[in-house]
Design a protein that fits this description.
This protein has 101 residues and is mostly helical. The protein has helices spanning 2-32, 34-51, 56-76, 80-96. The protein is built from four helices and no strands.
Length: 101
């Protein structure tokens, strides 16, 4: 269980953050400005999870989480803090049973 938790949490956090905050947030910031980039990538982040069959209410929470991740990426000028936070939240979701129900 612990090995699965660590592997999933690292892989998911790194890949999602590199895509959403590393690549898309950076590109959208250049085109639309930082605030709109955070809003759009956060909405996309929530919708991505909806496409995986996660309920709307949870996807709204994920969009709010995406705003947090986007904000710390912008303020920190690095995607590393959002990867670390995402990793921690993933571990908590797995251990709570949220992802294995």
């Amino acid at each position: 269980m612990w090995l699965l938790t660590i592997i999933f949490s690292i892989t998911n956090a790194v890949l999602e953050e590199l895509i959403w905050r590393g690549n898309l947030l950076n590109r959208f910031s250049e085109l639309l400005g930082e605030k709109w980039a955070v809003v759009l990538t956060s909405l996309g982040f929530g919708l991505q999870h909806y496409s995986l069959g996660i309920p709307w209410v949870t996807c709204i929470a994920f969009s709010i989480g995406g705003m947090f991740y986007g904000g710390i990426t912008i303020k920190g000028r690095s995607v590393i803090p959002s990867i670390l936070w995402h990793f921690i939240f993933n571990i908590l979701m797995v251990l709570s049973g949220f992802l294995l129900n």
